[in-house]
Write a structure and sequence with these properties.
Blueprint (H helix, E strand, L loop, with lengths): L3 E4 L4 E4 L9 E4 L4 E6 L4 E5 L6 E3 L14 E6 L2 E3 L12 E6 L3 E8 L2 E8 L6 E10 L5 E14 L1 H4 L3 H4 L5 E4 L2 E4 L9 E7 L5 E5 H5 L9 H5 L12 E11 L4 E12 L15 H9 L3 H19 L2 E4 L3 H21 L14 E2 H11 L4 H13 L10 E2 L17 H16 L8 E2 L9 E2 H13 L23 E2 L8 E2 L9 E2 H20 L3 H21 L9 E2 L5 E2 L9 E2 H9 L9 H11 L1 E2 L2 E2 L2 E2 L25 E2 L3 H10 L3 H11 L8 H4 L7 E4 L10 E4 L4 H13 L2 E4 L2 E4 L10 E7 L2 E8 L8 E6 L2 E3 L3 E2 L7 E8 L1
Parallel strand pairs: 40-44
Antiparallel strand pairs: 1-2, 2-9, 3-4, 4-5, 6-13, 7-8, 7-13, 9-10, 10-11, 11-12, 12-19, 13-18, 14-15, 15-16, 16-19, 17-18, 20-39, 21-22, 23-24, 25-26, 27-28, 28-29, 30-33, 31-32, 34-35, 35-36, 37-38, 38-43, 39-40, 41-42, 41-44
Helix pairs in contact: 7-8, 7-19, 8-9, 8-10, 8-19, 9-10, 10-11, 10-12, 12-13, 12-14, 14-15, 14-16, 16-17, 16-19, 17-19
Length: 811
C-alpha cells in the first residue's frame, strides 16, 4: 500500500494523505540553521547544535504524536483547520504534501478556501521562511482570521525539558510591530536571540502560551483561535511563544499571501542591552529586510533549488531502471547530505539532546558526500581528527557546536580509529589533495598538541597493531561497529552500566570484524605511506596487514563463514559451535570486501552462508539464530527481543557490505538482489508494512523473528545512506575514484542494459557511456577516452582538461 508517489521531474515525494503510518519528514537547511518538518507540519528548528541552540520545542512520545511544530490556524466562519491538518486534525477537502530538496510544500483546501504553504531554509541565511497563500475559491466573500504559532525552546533542550524550577522564571520576549523577539538568556553571556515575524501588520498577538491556548488546553483548538482574539500577552517567565493574528477579507477568487520568518541572530559578545533591557535588533532587522516580500522570498527559493540542482549534478546516471536513476540522482545523495549535516544528532528517533556527532558515524558518512562537497569534507575530517586521543583512540561522539567529546559515552570502541583512515583515503582519492596530511591537528582539541594529520592516521593504524588478543586478532574494547556486542563486560542486571574485566582477566575479547577492517584500510594506509615517501613505514604497515590476513585465516574462519569474535574467556562468538548467534553479517561483508579468502576459495562460502542463513524477503538479518535470553558475557546485544535491532534485526547499514562483497567476487546478479531488497524506491509498495518514509533509508527493519517483521525504524540518519551510495555508484555502477584517476569497473545483473553516467571529478566533467551486453555481470573489454583506446580501466588525467568523453565496452 502506498501513501503517495515519486515526482521525479520535480525531485519531490508527494504525500497524498496526512494519515501516514508514521510522521514522514524532511530536513530543511544546508549550513547552520536547520529545521525538521513532517507531512503534517510537526517538527523543530535549531542553529548548529540541536542540543545547545534549540530554537523551538518538540515533545517526543507526545499524545497525539507529532503535535508540536510551526502551525497556521485558519478560522473560517467557525471552522478551524490547518494547511497540514495538524494540530486541529480537522479533515480537509483536499490535502497534499510535497517534500523536496531542502523544502516542503503543503496544499490543502476546506470549504472552498485553498491554502498553500511553502517552507524552506535559504542556502545562506539563518532563518526559516514560510510563504503562505490563501485563496477564496467560493462565490461569496470570506472573512477569515489567520493565526500563526511557534513555541520557543529555552535554548538548551535538555535543560528546557528538565530544569523547570529555573526555566519557569526566565522566559523573556519583546514585541516590535509584527516581530516577536525571544530573548531568554540574552542577559547572560550568550548574546543570541531568535524571532518570529510576518511581513504585514498584525491585528493582535500573543507571546504567553497559556494566554494563547487557554489554561489547561492543548494546541488543537487554542482559545485565542476559537474566540478569534489574541490578547497581546507578554510572556514573563513561563512559556514564551510567538503567535500572530491577521484578520482578512477575501473576495470571490481573491488571493492573499504572507511571508513568515523564524530567525536566529547573534550580537557581538560586548554588546550591551539598551535600557531598559532591550536587545540590539540590528542583525534581525537586516535579516528580515532580505526576505520581507514574496518576491524576495521566491528569489531565495529559486537560489535554493539551483543550489541542489548544481550539487546533485556532480553524479547523475541515465539507465533503463527508474529506481536506480531516482535513488542515485536524487534521494540517496540528498540523504547523504542530510547525514553530513546531522550525523546521528537530530531526527524523529534521535532527540538531538544526547549523541551529537559520531566519530565512526561521521567518518562513514563522508564516504557518501565527499564527491559533493569536498571542501567541507576536508573541514569535517579535521574536526573529527581533533577529537582523537594521543594513543589513537577517540571519543565515540562529540558535540557539533563545541567539538568536545561526549563524556557520557567516552571511548573504547576499537573500530573508531580505523574509520579515520577510511575517510582520509576516500577524500584524497576524490581530490588528490595530499596536502591535508600536513595540516596541524590537535589531540582531544587541546592547544599545543598539534601534529600533522598523517600522524593521526599513524596513531589510528598502530592502535590496532598494539591492541591484539591471544589469537592475534584486534581487541574489541567496549565494542566495535556493533555497539551492543559488549564482550568484555559484566553487570549484575540487564541495563546496568557495563564494567570491563579487571587487568588480570583482560580485557581480551577480540573482533574478527575489526580484523577485516584492518586489512582493508591498512592497505590504504600502506598506500598513503608509499605515496608520501614514508617507505619504511609502508613496509611495516604491509607486514602488519599480511599478518592480520593470516590471523583471520588461522583463527577467524569457522569452516563455512567467518567468526564474529572471541569473548573475554576466548569463547567463539558467531560460530557453528554456538547455540544461538551462530553467524553474523558484519565479518562476512568486511572480510570479503578486504579480499580475505578470495584466493583461498572461502569468500564464496561465506557469502553463500549469508544467503542461506541470514536472507529474508526484506533484507539480510544481522545474525541468526536470534538470542532468546540475556547473555551477560555478550552484553547489550542480547537485551533486545528477537528480531529487533542488533538481535537479529535487518540492519540496513551493513546490507551494502554484502552487496559490495558480492561485486568483489563478480556476482552482479546477487549483488543487485541484495541492493534491491532494502532500496526505498523498490519497496514503496509496502509502505504500510515498512511504515517509515519510502524515499529514504532506515537504520533497521524488524527481522524474521519479530512480530513486526518488515517494519522499519530510525529513518534518515543512518550510515546506510553513505554505504548504499558507495555500493550503487562505485560497486554496482562501477564509477569509483582512485589515487591516480577515475576507475570504471561495473558489476551488475545480467539483464541490466546500457547506461550513462555524468561524474564531476577533480575539476573535470566525465561523460561516461557504458555498453553492457545481456548476460554479462562484470568485466571491461575496452575503454575509449575522447576517441582513443586506453590500457586498463583507469581513465588517465590530462592537465588542463575539464571534460572527458568516455565509452566503455563490458564483456
Amino acid at each position: 500500500m502506498k501513501f503517495g508517489y515519486f515526482d521525479d521531474k520535480a525531485k519531490e515525494y508527494v504525500i497524498t494523505t496526512p494519515h501516514t503510518p508514521l510522521p514522514w519528514i524532511n530536513y530543511l537547511g544546508s549550513n547552520d540553521f536547520f529545521s525538521l518538518i513532517s507531512n503534517t507540519c510537526g517538527g523543530y528548528s535549531f542553529y548548529k547544535d540541536a542540543k545547545l541552540l534549540r530554537i523551538t520545542r518538540y515533545r517526543y512520545n507526545n499524545i497525539p504524536a507529532d503535535s508540536n511544530g510551526k502551525y497556521y490556524y485558519i478560522n473560517d466562519d467557525g471552522v478551524i483547520w490547518n494547511p497540514g491538518t495538524m494540530p486541529s486534525a480537522t479533515e480537509t477537502d483536499t490535502y497534499e504534501c510535497r517534500h523536496g530538496l531542502g523544502y516542503s510544500r503543503f496544499c490543502s483546501s476546506k470549504n472552498n478556501l485553498k491554502a498553500e504553504l511553502l517552507v524552506f531554509v535559504p542556502s545562506d541565511a539563518s532563518c526559516e521562511i514560510n510563504c503562505l497563500k490563501l485563496k477564496n475559491n467560493s462565490e461569496t466573500e470570506k472573512n477569515i482570521s489567520l493565526f500563526s504559532y511557534v513555541e520557543f525552546c529555552l535554548w538548551n533542550a535538555v535543560d528546557d525539558a528538565s530544569n523547570f524550577q529555573r526555566n519557569l522564571s526566565i522566559g523573556e520576549v519583546e514585541v516590535q510591530g509584527s516581530t516577536i523577539y525571544h530573548k531568554t538568556e540574552y542577559r547572560e553571556r550568550r548574546k543570541h536571540y531568535s524571532f518570529f515575524t510576518v511581513n504585514t501588520q498584525v491585528d493582535n498577538y500573543d507571546t504567553n502560551r497559556d494566554a494563547f491556548l487557554g489554561a489547561g488546553n492543548g494546541n488543537a483548538f487554542p482559545e485565542a483561535v476559537c474566540k478569534k482574539k489574541c490578547s497581546n500577552s507578554i510572556a514573563s517567565g513561563w512559556y514564551p511563544i510567538a503567535a500572530h493574528q491577521i484578520d482578512l477579507t477575501l473576495l470571490p477568487g481573491e488571493e492573499k499571501e504572507f511571508v513568515f520568518m523564524l530567525g536566529y541572530c547573534e550580537n557581538p559578545a560586548d554588546d550591551k542591552w539598551e535600557a531598559p533591557g532591550i536587545i540590539n535588533k540590528t542583525s534581525a532587522k537586516a535579516l528580515i529586510e532580505r526576505f520581507n516580500t514574496m518576491e524576495k522570498a521566491m528569489q531565495a527559493f529559486a537560489e535554493l533549488k539551483n543550489y541542489w540542482e548544481t550539487l546533485l549534478a556532480r553524479f547523475a546516471v541515465v539507465s533503463e531502471n527508474e529506481h536506480i536513476d531516482r535513488m542515485a540522482n536524487i534521494w540517496n545523495q540528498y540523504q547523504c547530505m542530510v547525514t553530513f549535516n546531522m550525523s546521528r544528532s537530530a531526527s524523529y528517533y534521535e532527540s538531538g539532546t544526547g549523541r551529537g556527532m559520531g566519530f565512526r558515524d561521521s567518518c562513514q558518512d563522508l564516504l557518501g558526500f565527499v564527491h559533493l562537497i569536498p571542501e567541507r569534507a576536508r573541514e569535517r575530517i579535521i574536526d573529527i581528527a581533533s577529537t582523537q586521543f594521543p594513543d589513537g583512540s577517540a571519543y565515540h561522539q562529540y558535540q557539533p557546536l563545541t567539538k568536545q567529546g561526549n563524556l557520557d559515552v567516552g571511548s573504547g570502541f576499537n573500530d573508531d580509529p580505523l574509520w579515520l583512515i577510511a575517510a582520509v583515503a576516500a577524500y584524497i582519492k576524490e581530490t588528490g589533495d595530499y596536502g591535508i596530511l600536513d595540516v596541524q591537528v590537535p589531540f582531544d582539541c587541546k592547544k599545543g598538541t598539534e601534529v600533522p594529520l598523517f600522524e593521526h592516521l599513524e596513531k589510528s593504524f598502530y592502535y590496532t597493531v598494539t591492541h591484539l588478543g591471544p589469537h592475534k586478532l584486534p581487541l574489541i574494547g567496549r565494542a566495535d561497529w556493533n555497539d551492543c556486542l559488549n564482550l568484555n563486560c559484566f553487570s549484575s542486571e540487564p541495563g546496568e552500566s557495563f564494567q570491563t574485566t579487571g587487568p588480570s582477566e583482560g580485557p581480551v575479547a577480540e573482533s574478527v570484524f575489526i580484523a577485516g577492517m584492518f586489512v582493508k584500510y591498512g592497505k590504504e594506509f600502506e598506500e598513503l605511506c608509499e605515496r608520501t615517501g614514508h617507505t619504511e613505514l609502508a613496509k611495516e604497515a604491509g607486514k602488519a596487514v599480511d599478518e592480520m590476513y593470516q590471523a583471520v585465516l588461522d583463527n577467524g574462519w569457522d569452516g563455512e563463514w567467518f567468526l564474529r569474535a572471541y569473548d573475554a574467556q576466548s569463547e567463539k562468538v558467531g560460530s557453528k559451535e554456538c547455540e544461538e548467534g551462530k553467524i553474523f553479517i558484519e565479518p562476512q561483508g568486511f572480510c570479503v570486501m578486504a579480499g580475505i579468502g578470495k584466493e583461498e576459495g572461502i569468500a564464496e562460502k561465506a557469502l553463500d552462508s549469508v544467503n542461506e542463513l541470514l536472507e529474508t524477503k526484506y533484507g539480510i538479518m544481522i545474525l541468526q539464530p536470534a538470542y532468546t535470553r540475556y547473555h551477560l558475557e555478550l552484553g547489550e546485544i542480547t537485551s533486545y527481543p528477537p528480531g529487533y535491532k542488533e538481535n537479529a534485526g535487518i540492519f540496513c547499514h551493513n546490507n551494502p557490505w554484502i552487496s559490495i562483497a558480492e561485486t568483489v567476487l563478480g556476482r552482479g546478479n546477487r549483488a543487485f538482489e541484495v541492493y534491491r531488497k532494502i532500496c526505498p524506491s523498490y519497496i514503496e509498495e509496502i509502505s504500510d508494512i515498512h511504515r517509515t518514509e519510502p524515499y529514504v533509508y532506515s537504520q533497521m527493519i524488524a527481522g524474521a523473528d519479530a512480530p513486526g517483521f518488515g517494519e522499519a525504524k530510525n529513518s534518515w540518519l543512518t550510515g546506510t545512506a553513505a554505504w548504499t551510495f558507495v555500493n550503487l555508484s562505485q560497486a554496482l555502477l562501477g564509477i569509483l575514484p582512485g589515487y591516480d584517476g577515475l576507475i570504471v569497473d561495473p558489476c551488475l545483473p545480467e539483464t541490466f542494459g546500457d547506461f550513462k553516467v555524468n561524474r564531476h571529478f577533480r575539476g573535470a566533467d566525465y561523460h561516461i557511456e557504458i555498453h553492457k551486453p545481456k548476460g554479462v555481470q562484470k568485466g571491461v573489454r575496452w575503454i575509449e577516452v575522447d576517441g582513443e583506446r586506453i590500457n586498463g580501466n583507469q581513465i588517465p588525467m590530462v592537465n588542463g582538461r575539464n571534460e572527458y568523453h568516455v565509452i566503455v565496452q563490458m564483456g
